[in-house]
Fold:
Amino acid sequence: NAGVTQTPKFQVLKTGQSMTLQCAQDMNHNSMYWYRQDPGMGLRLIYYSASEGTTDKGEVPNGYNVSRLNKREFSLRLESAAPSQTSVYFCASSPRIQGGPNTGELFFGEGSRLTVL
Amino acid sequence: AQSVSQHNHHVILSEAASLELGCNYSYGGTVNLFWYVQYPGQHLQLLLKYFSGDPLVKGIKGFEAEFIKSKFSFNLRKPSVQWSDTAEYFCALSLGGYNKLIFGAGTRLAVHP
Structure:
């Protein structure tokens, strides 16, 4: 029962470096999300993908790009890391019920702690 | 813009004490409301949710929440907390499809034996 798997769990970058956070889910969910968690600010949505082949901006998309590689995988890329991107990043997925209300239940990964020096 | 406010950032209780965590949201239309919990070192997981119907909803581990539309509130309650309830609790709202949840800042609960 892997659920949502994120890699890497920890990463230290220098300002200006690039990196990609990987996320994969094995629950056949349609929707996937990237959030960042900062002290005192809760979780803020960076990007989401309602279904394979689509991506949309969330609250705080600047400085990030995403790719929905297939139904299972949704990656987050930092092209030129900045200290303001030091955070804990969470990937999540959720199912969509055809013809019915969404469940509102997100299934989260364990998080990736990123430090930008 | 829609937002979620959690009044208490840190709460410290003794075991068997009653718990109430406040959550208010700003949006004039129909909302779906949620409480998520993050135990130390674990994933966030859903505690309970409200879509419609009975405004008093029950979740896992003895938690419940009451939706009061006139107060734009969705407070989380538990009659008697346990040490194992030590965690961070997040209130969240969704305005509709694709589960775009807006989270509050979270409340860290510490329960002492």
User: Anything to note?
Assistant: Chain B touches chain A at residues 4, 6, 9, 32, 34, 36, 42-46, 49, 51, 90, 92, 94, 96-106 (CB under 8 Å). The two ends of chain B are 41 Å apart (CA to CA).
